[in-house]
Amino acid sequence: MSSLNSLYPWLVPVWQPWQAGLAAGKISSATLIQASEGLGAESLVELMARTLMCTSSQTEPCGFCHSCGLMQSGNHPDFHVVKPEKVGKSITVEQIRQMNRIAQESSQLSGYRLIVIEPADAMNESSANALLKTLEEPAPNCLFILVTSRIKHLLPTIVSRCQRLVIPAPTTALVVEWLKGQGITTPAYALHLCADSPLKTRAFMLEGGAEKYHELESQLMNALSGDVNAQLKCIALIDADLTTHLYWVWCVLTDAQKIHFGVQQDYYPPASTALAGRFTYSKLHAQTESLERLMEQLNQFSGLNTELLLLQWLYQFSNEETCL
Asked: Which of 4, 102, 137, 316 is the most exposed place for a label (fewest CB within 10 A)?
């Protein structure tokens, strides 16, 4: 089976040039893959790793050799992944030092040694500096693949020593066609609410996201009537998936502001038109800024009273002084 069958269609234009470079012996000792979350970069990394480790083919994994078998079982002695020991934590300098020692060892199967660091932006300054020397003086037949969705959080000196592969966001038409091929009909606003991520959009549709959004939209409009019980009900719904639901509300508000400037798009969430007709641009802009500050607070500090903060925000929003 062709390796292309295991890739999402928007990854193929990134994979093919890299594959050609590998066949020509022109790949860098360090590759940096840059992609937004939800584009499936991990599947590209997996295919690259399996290809590099295969001892029977130079362009794609054969799936039958001893090395491919070890990769499939997760026991290849020359393949290593460095990631945070706990979710949300940094990759420590000790992890990188251990990886540096591995990089200097000989291959156990007389092929490449491959080290994947993901997410590379989880390295702190000390661990990044520890990696830098190894990238500057790479050991023979030792390759690195770094993966990031936040390139600005990497040291420029790290970036400069890597071959960069950027995974661009796929077009809406490509994503819609891909979803349709899986039997998923997607409303125009779904991709927008999922930050244009095809994988997040698929999960959104398969996990009842459209129904959840419409319920949130209804509860938000009820809450803006000023009724405290309606506001508390809306807050409970938002709090059920705080980060995602606040992002949906943010999308509605920003799109409502665009409507005031005559910008209309078919992917705007339905509530945007209703809010644009009910509130002035100034009111919407002020509430959006307030929401952004609230989201930043909740992201940075634990232990905050989420219900009280959201209730205050909804109370300010439902104040009719600056409504149309």
From this structure: 137
